[in-house]
Amino acid sequence: MGVAVSTPTETGTRVKRVRFTFKNKLGRALWTLVWMMFFRTSPRFMFFWRRFLLRCFGARMAAGTIVYPSTRIWAPWHLEMEVESCLSFGVECYSVDRIRLGHRAVVSQYAFLCGASHDYNDPAMPTIAGPIILGDFAWVCAGAFVGPGVTLGDGVVAGARAVVLRDVAAWNIVAGNPAIVVKTRDSSPFKRS
User: Fold this and answer.
1) Total structural domains within the chain
2) String of b and e for 90-100 (b: at least 16 CB within 10 Å)?
3) What DSSP string runs through 25-44?
4) Residue 192 domain flag
5) How far apart are CA 78 and CA 98, in angstroms?
6) Is the dihedral of CA 56, 59, 61, 65 positive or negative?
7) Which of 181, 65, 79, 190 is CA-nearest to residue 133?
C-alpha cells in the first residue's frame, strides 16, 4: 500500500523511503473509524473481537494473541502476531512497515514501536520506514521505544524507558538511552519441547 525505495541509515539498518498511496490513506481512514467505534470501545476481556477486527484489516493474528482496546495500531495490514503474543494497554504501534511479534513476545504498557522516521539529510524530510521484529519471548518493557528497522532477538528484554535504535542479539537485556546491553537473560526456562 505504498511505494518504497531502500536507503541505508547511519546505523547501517536498511530502511526505505515511503510514499503513501490513495489506497493506503483510505485504508487508514477506514481503520481509524473502526478503531474509534468498535475497537477502542470494546470491553477489555473481548480479545477475540479485537483479533477479528484486526484480521478484517489484514493483520495476521495467531490464536491466543492479546491486544488491549487502548492499543493504537497505525496500519493493521502490517501487523503480525504469533501465538500468545501481547500488545498491552496504551501501546503505540506505528506500523508504517511490518511489525512482527514472535511467540509469547510482550509489549508492555505505553511502549512505542515506531516503524518510521524522517530522512533528515533531505530538505523535504521524506518518511522512511523499516520493519520491527520481536523474537520469541522478547519483552519490551513499559514506556520503551523501539525504532524503525530494529530486530530484537529471541528472549531480548528492552528495559523500562529504554530507547532501542539498533538490533539486539538473542537473550540480552538492554536499558538506557540509547539502549546498551546490561545483562544476559537465562534462556534455559524458555526451551520448548
Assistant:
1) 1
2) bbbbbbbbbbb
3) HHHHHHHHHHIIIIITTS-T
4) no
5) 4
6) negative
7) 79
| Neighbour count for residue 111 (Cβ, 10 Å) | 26
Distant-in-sequence, close-in-space partners of 7: CB < 8 Å, separation ≥ 6: 14, 15, 16, 17, 119, 128
Residue 78 CB neighbours (<10 A): 24
The answer to whether the bond into 69 is cis (omega within 30° of 0) is: no
Grid cell locating 123: 530538505
Task: Evaluate whether residue 190 is within a structural domain.
Answer: no
Question: Collapsing DSSP states into helix, strand and coil, what is residue 48?
Answer: helix
Q: What is the pLDDT of residue 190?
A: 85
Task: Report the predicted TM-score, pTM, of the whole model to 2 decimal places.
Answer: 0.90
Report d(CA 155, CA 2) in Å as an integer. Answer: 32
Range of the domain at 90: 2-184
CATH number of the domain that residue 98 is part of: 2.160.10.10
Distance CA 176, CA 15 (A): 23
Question: pLDDT under 70 in the chain at which residues?
Answer: 1-13, 192-193
Strands 127-129 and 116-118: antiparallel
The residue type of 97 is D
